[in-house]
Design brief:
The complex is a heterotrimer of chains A (about 240), B (about 280) and C (about 300). In chain A, α4 crosses α5 and α5 packs parallel to α6. Chain A has about 240 residues and is of the alpha/beta class. In chain A, β8 and β9 form a beta hairpin. Chain A is built from 9 helices and 9 strands. Chain A is globular and about 50 Å long. In chain A, strands 5-6-7-3-8-9 form a 6-stranded mixed β-sheet, sandwiched between helices. In chain A, strands 2-1-4 form a 3-stranded antiparallel β-sheet, covered by helices on one side. Chain B is mainly α. In chain B, α2 packs parallel to α9, α3 packs across α5 and α7 packs antiparallel against α9. The radius of gyration of chain B is 22 Å and the shape is elongated. The chains are: A alpha/beta (about 240), B mainly alpha (about 280), C mainly alpha (about 300). Chains in contact: A-B, B-C. Chains B and C meet through α3, α4, α7, α8 and α9 of B and α1, α6, α7, α10 and α11 of C.
């Protein structure tokens, strides 16, 4: 299988600003993180809040100004799906604009081709053409997340980082969006780095899972294996919490 | 569940301030524009037979001590005032938007320095500052525009900076960056449209303040020159007539200024309430 | 305490910056030698005067000396009138200060009860009428109020003589009576603004939990408002008032003209016109000090009213 992402010995620490009255503090957020991600694979990353999973996502996306270690991409730019769809969609713009902008930035297609792709993608995520002129404030939470997925996938990425993409949604909507993500993966041969605090959600979508605690990957393996024979106590704790 | 569409709603419905403000402003702009192409009398032609007349059907606002028709002069002179206000808001607004967006988006040392300069300018009441600077300079429309425009920059820069600093941390901006958009594309296409709702009331209040400032400056004799006719200048001319028992000159000119300011003020308040 | 110390420090720094900038700017625009000797003086006489006045020395040095003397109470000598600046501006400063003070008192005296009164009547017809009226009053510029007051009280009712001014050295009551009209002109739009602000602020306080608790304890709406809300509602108003007091000071300078009040504003304008730089510099610095002091007082009052922001 083709490797599309390689992370080696990643260490990230934040330094709190020192002031006159306070000393600088160094806080290690990621400790010696290494993993590979292969084409077509959905890799889950589970951990509690503050475990460093979002920092890892930011490192993979190239949003961190400083880190030690290497992050190597074997594909073009990864795309991202954020947790809170309302802040991830520009409130001043329409759905059509939000979907066209990534294509404009890439600048490869002319106007009719852009429109064709937008309409095709909109249909794939289950929205009709009439949504093109709607503003985000006129959409429900699930619809927003669909638009966000469409905008991420319209540039045909190979890797998508999904940072808690369903945790802001109702349970019924969660299931719909997870189904959509699985379908899009099959259709486009996508790889996911799927971040969640919820083992159940990860189980529904991922092949493999990494468990993260306090900036360290404590356990990694095939999803069934982990669920049936969790080795690390923290993993057991997470599975119990999910049931 | 999808919320009701917001944009199709009539913006004037239930917004008394917006409706009244827009109506008064449109009326005043039409009144002024008309005054540039047609006035009841020649605004600069003295008439020895009609000096210092009180308002009458022939001269609705009366005549001044040279026998010139005040309504004609006001219609014509409002153009100078409105032009000054327009240029001040345009120049001050553009500079404010540029400074505010750069400092708000990038932050850092430039932000710190520029905002300190803004603080320094606004530490002193701007009317007083304008008064001192304009008194030093030659009177004239050009100088009034430049001085007021510069003094108006901080008010726009602040509003825009706050919005840019707020939007910069939003996920849609991060997303745009991940899609490969450069900083200027993000500022212009992604953030700026979000700034309009707060910029529009600021522009309206800017007009309000600019008309007030022109009137105050010219009234004190430091605004437009004696050969230029503006509302403030007419107020200056009318000062002596009040004490001579002919207050209609000052009253009518003042009323026109008040209407102009009131229009912009209500419009600004209406636009502000629309954001809630 | 540390907060106020920090404020004081920034304030001093700002003052220093303002005073140096204005000193440098005015030194550049007005050549005192030309002002004093006129344009047809011999070069020798001009050079002699320049040396006598110490103008051949570097600017920062002269600025430092000027500031030092200023703090000691010596504000220099007018180029035009050859009088000590201090003597020239003393009485005029007092006039402007009293006028501003009256405007501030008027604003507080009217808008605080009015704001609370309207807040208690939220949503009723009176409230709606006054909200609209307020918005209109806010847009009426002081000079128009001045014209109206002159026409109504001066010309029609003959309560006062337009164009007349009574110095306080002559009669205090008459002086104060004549100052009411300019003070009211400046204050009227500010009264409207402050009332609106206080009404909104009081309403916000009334919606808070502790007020609802007060209701449940059996307080009536009126006493609930009085007991708890007003003090908290005052907080944003105090800072707002401070900024307004500074604006009223500036607005008063415009109004002095209409009421023939011999205040600091008219002296400032005429002194800039005659390039009487020492007078101008002194007035600008004093006005700057006032404005900063007003802001400082606003900050300190805000601290006293709201223990939460005390650092």
């Amino acid at each position: 299988m083709d490797k599309i992402l390689e992370v080696r010995d990643l260490n990230v620490s934040y330094t709190t600003e020192g002031t006159l009255f306070r000393k600088k503090e160094v806080q290690k957020v990621l400790k010696d993180v290494s993993f590979d991600l292969y084409a077509g694979e959905a890799l889950g990353l589970v951990g509690g809040s503050g475990s460093g999973k979002t920092t890892l996502a930011r490192a993979v996306l190239g949003l961190l100004p400083r880190y030690e270690g290497t992050v190597t991409h074997y594909t073009p730019r990864p795309q991202v799906i954020f947790q809170d769809p309302s802040s991830a969609l520009n409130p001043a713009r329409t759905v059509g604009w939000i979907m066209e902008e990534p294509l404009l930035i890439h600048g490869k297609y002319d106007a009719p081709e852009r429109r064709r792709r937008i309409l095709a993608m909109l249909e794939q995520v289950g929205l009709s053409e009439e949504y093109l002129d709607r503003h985000p404030s006129e959409l429900s939470g699930g619809q927003k997340q669909r638009v966000l997925i469409a905008a991420a996938l319209i540039v045909r990425p190979r890797l998508v980082v999904a940072d808690e993409p369903v945790s802001a949604l109702d349970v019924t909507i969660q299931a719909q969006i997870l189904k959509l993500l699985a379908e899009m993966r099959r259709r486009h041969g996508l790889s996911y780095l799927f971040i969640s605090h919820d083992m159940n959600v990860v189980y529904q979508l991922c092949d493999r899972v990494m468990v993260m605690q306090e900036g360290r990957i404590v356990e990694t393996g095939a999803i069934d294996e982990i669920f049936q024979h969790p080795k690390h106590p923290y993993t057991r704790q997470l599975i119990e919490a999910a049931n | 569940m999808a919320k009701q569409p917001v944009k199709n709603k009539n913006p004037f419905a239930g917004n008394w301030f917006l409706t009244a403000g827009a109506a008064i402003t449109v009326f005043m702009i039409l009144f002024t524009l008309l005054g540039q192409i047609w006035t009841p009398y020649d605004p600069s032609l003295p008439d020895e037979n009609a000096m210092s007349l009180a308002p009458s059907p022939a001269h609705w606002f009366g005549t001044d001590s040279f026998g010139r028709d005040i309504l004609s002069r006001v219609m014509n002179g409002a153009g100078t005032t409105l032009l000054i206000a327009f240029l001040v808001v345009l120049i001050g607004g553009i500079a404010g938007v540029i400074i505010g967006s750069l400092t708000g988006y990038f932050g850092g040392v430039v932000d710190e320095v520029l905002m300190r300069i803004c603080d320094l300018i606004t530490a002193f009441p701007s009317i007083l500052l304008a008064l001192i600077i304009l008194r030093i300079m030659e009177p004239g429309v050009k100088n009034v525009v430049w001085v007021l425009a510069i003094l108006f920059v901080p008010s726009f820069a602040r509003v825009v900076r706050t919005e840019f600093a707020r939007c910069r941390t939003q996920n849609y901006v991060k997303l745009a960056r991940l899609q490969g958009a450069g900083p200027f594309r993000i500022m212009l296409r992604h953030i700026l449209p979000n700034v309009w709702p707060v910029l529009l009331p600021a522009v309206s209040i800017g007009f309000n303040n600019a008309v007030l400032a022109e009137a105050s400056m010219s009234f004190l004799g430091v605004g437009v020159s004696a050969s230029e006719v503006s509302l403030g200048r007419m107020l200056y001319d009318s000062q002596n007539t009040i004490l001579r028992g002919a207050p209609w000159y000052a009253l009518t000119v003042g009323l026109v200024i008040v209407l102009m300011i009131l229009g912009f003020s209500l419009l600004g308040e209406g636009l502000r309430q629309r954001n809630r | 305490m540390r907060y106020i110390g920090k404020k004081l420090l920034t304030l001093l720094a700002t003052l220093l910056a303002v005073s140096f900038l204005s000193y440098a700017a005015f030194e550049m625009i007005g050549d005192p030698v030309a002002t004093i000797l006129g344009t047809n003086a011999t070069p020798e006489a001009a050079a002699q005067l320049r040396a006598d006045m110490g103008l051949d020395r570097p600017l920062p040095l002269r600025y430092g000396e000027w500031l030092w003397h200023f703090m000691g109470g010596d504000m220099g000598t007018s180029y035009i009138y050859r009088l000590p600046v201090r003597e020239m501006i003393g009485e005029k400063l007092a006039v402007t200060l009293i006028m501003t003070l009256m405007a501030v008192i008027l604003t507080v005296a009217v808008s605080v009860p009015a704001g609370a009164w309207l807040a208690r009547r939220e949503g009723r017809p009176v409230d709606k009428v006054f909200t609209v009226l307020n918005q209109i009053l806010m847009a009426v510029p002081p000079f128009f109020v001045a014209v109206l007051l002159t026409v109504v009280f001066g010309l029609l009712l003959r309560v006062f003589t337009p164009g007349r001014f009574v110095p306080y050295t002559e009669s205090w009551p008459l002086f104060l009576f004549y100052m009411i009209f300019p003070a009211l002109s400046v204050a009227l739009p500010r009264i409207a603004m402050t009332t609106k602000m206080l009404r909104a602020s009081a309403l916000e306080e009334l919606g808070r939990d502790y007020i609802l608790t007060a209701y449940s304890r059996g307080h009536s709406r009126r006493s609930a408002l009085k007991a708890h809300a007003l003090k908290n509602a005052m907080l944003p108003v105090v800072t707002f008032l401070a900024a307004n007091a500074a604006e009223m000071l500036a607005g008063g300078i415009v109004i002095e003209q209409l009421f023939s009040v011999p205040g600091i504003g008219r002296l400032l304008l005429s002194s800039i016109g005659t390039r009487d730089i020492p007078v101008v510099e002194a007035i600008v610095l004093i006005l700057a000090v006032w404005v900063m002091l007003i802001h400082l007082i606003g900050d300190i009052l805000g601290q006293i009213l709201d223990p939460r922001v005390r650092l």
